[in-house]
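Q: Sequence in, structure out?
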Amino acid sequence: MPVVAADAGYVFSRAPRMIYWEMTRACDLACRHCRAEAISRRDPHELSTPEALSLLDQILEFGDPLPHLVCTGGDPLLRPDLESVIAAGSARGIGVSLAPSATANLSPAALERLHAAGMQSMSLSLDGSTPQRHDEFRGVPGTFDATLAAARWARTLGIPLQLNTLVTAQTREDLPALYALARDLDIMRWSLFFLITVGRGRDLEELTPADAEAVMHWLYDRSRESRFGIAATEAPHFRRVALVRMRDEGFDGAAVRRSPIGRGFGVRDGNGVMFISHRGEVTPAGFLPVVTGNVRDRSLADLYRNHLVFTALRDVSAFGGKCARCEYRSLCGGSRARAFAHTGDYLAADPLCAYVP
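A: Exactly. Output:
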């Protein structure tokens, strides 16, 4: 008996739910796991302000409901047009969120201006429960304190906050302490990013599949008690764990789908998600660097709906290895970015998954 509905229920072929735009690669931090391998100065080939406004117009081509835009980097605060771009997106009816770096550029005044311009929510990264642990990852002393200060400012201003945490072999033992810290920050969501070994992250160590499975069960237990949502990035197997646990607890299908985890079923690289680089290159995700085109030459909607890479990623029957045989392939699908990082094939099986179909 199938555990999920037909594949079509988890195919997001009309439009992505989330568009991540790397506005710049400039950043004052030197994070050990930085996907972008951020640099100190802005690239002269970044999308210009007029090109940024054209990008917003391209997002409108998806139609209702529009995707949500996350402005990330590098550090988007290093773009002087950030406030005007957010205001332009908001005026077009596009929901806009921000993923800034915790530097001196992130001040109460800056947050107040960006919130007034239309920024709907914000994310901050916290990768250690102490200054020593966190600042070691970020490469700049004082970043831990700056992050907590920014979280407090966001709460004061009424800005919904997501906390992002890296999950590696080095950070696993610190997760309980990080969870305790997150509970005191009045956040809307804790998103745990399971390392993809790209960029500077190649120097870090991934969890073993068994350890990842144990962490996901621990996360599910926390999700049943916490006031905020808990999500796993590039670890869609968490949905399988959650589905099995919820069914064991007597949840019916409707209750599963209503849960924060259930609402994300099927979303993965290229299927509900797309990424735009600072130079306008379009890829299925920030951690899956397979370029399909450029917004300067081809529309976002055309690339997302019709490019062979995107359509292949939405066809779960094309997946390789055990992902092809797995009864959870529709709601999970594995991390296509991790498959690519390990094998060079974005349709291969995700090596982090411990489940045997």
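The radius of gyration is 19 Å.
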